[in-house]
Amino acid sequence: MIRISFAELKSTIKQAFLRAGMPEDRAETCAQIHTETTCDGVNSHGINRVERFIEYIHSGLVDVHASPKLAFALGAMEIYDGQLGPGILNALFAMDRATVLAAQHGLAMVALRNTTHWMRGGTYGWLAADKGFIGICWTNTESCMPPWGSRSEAVGNNPFVMAVPRKEGHLVLDMAMSQFSYGKVWSCRDKNIKLPFPGGFDHEGNLTDDAAAISETRRILPMGYWKGSGFAIMLDVIGALVSNGLATAGIDKANKGSAGSSSQVFIAIDPEKMNTREFIEQTLESTIAQLKAAVPVKEGGQMFYPGEQSLNTRKQNLQNGIPVDEPVWNKIKELAAQ
Length: 338
Fold this sequence. Notes:
This protein is an alpha+beta fold. The chain folds into 3 domains: about 1-60 and about 315-335, Malate/L-lactate/L-sulpholactate dehydrogenase, four-helix barrel (Hypothetical Oxidoreductase Yiak, Chain: A, domain 1, Orthogonal Bundle), CATH 1.10.1530; about 70-180 and about 220-275, Ribosomal Protein S8, Chain: A, domain 1 (2-Layer Sandwich), CATH 3.30.1370.60; about 275-305, no CATH class. Helices cover about 45% and strands about 15% of the residues. The strands form 3 sheets. It has a 7-stranded mixed beta sheet, sandwiched between helices. Strands 1-11 form a two-stranded antiparallel sheet. A two-stranded antiparallel sheet has the order 8-9. Strand 8 (about 200) and strand 9 form a beta hairpin. Helix 1 (about 5-20) packs across helix 2 and helix 6 crosses helix 7. The longest helix is centred in the N-terminal third of the chain and has 19 residues, at about 85-105. It is globular, with a radius of gyration of 20 Å. The two termini are about 25 Å apart.
């Protein structure tokens, strides 16, 4: 691993996007998000996704000029067609629009269909929280996870995000319906290290923490076994129904690459419409205080609220430089120079 400054990483990624044909303002925004994601320690959905994103641009799977088009509006609900535009830009638009509507109505939902990979879903939770809103969002995907009891992929791992604004650090939960995302599995495989916990099945059908074996079988483990499998199915069908878009079965048939033609949902809630600021802060701080007071399993261990470790990693990497895999960094520089 080598460490790169935030500014250098962002400028290099931006240059790679410009070389791929992205307009200046769009390359700037996408590079910012990829860099922030990497700075937060989620390389699997930041710098590690740049090369594939550019491949999708060149192959026509992503239209760098497309923007969301309004398809339906009813009060605090809106549906947009993403027109296979850059997933980051489409999702930023959708969550931002949800916060605008929530400021008027208290609660709002913006659904997005026919969009592309949004990279790190937590980005849109952080966006909502930064604006003072509770944020809930999710996306469906192509089949990439076996439903519980199956050997073959038939459901998506459908990342789900919840965020709550807090003065001393937002609470942000960002999770796939699999124990680990494929990005995490591939990252461990490439580093030749084990997963922190079993995350899938090997060729003999045994649970394993061997990332290479899971990459080969493509039998990632639903979180909570049957619970994660069921949760993934419900997120998929609800996302498709409220966006008038495709469910996983349709995404598979569309064959537009990873998360191409996906359906997404963005919900924003203004907590101050029904609560005082004092009540909100008191509730959050008492919850975190109780969490921190819990007795750790191992001496010296500590409990973290959702998003806390991302904040800690961000602070450290802004000070010391962002750690990236050297081969990945070299490829980004190569793409920026072409």
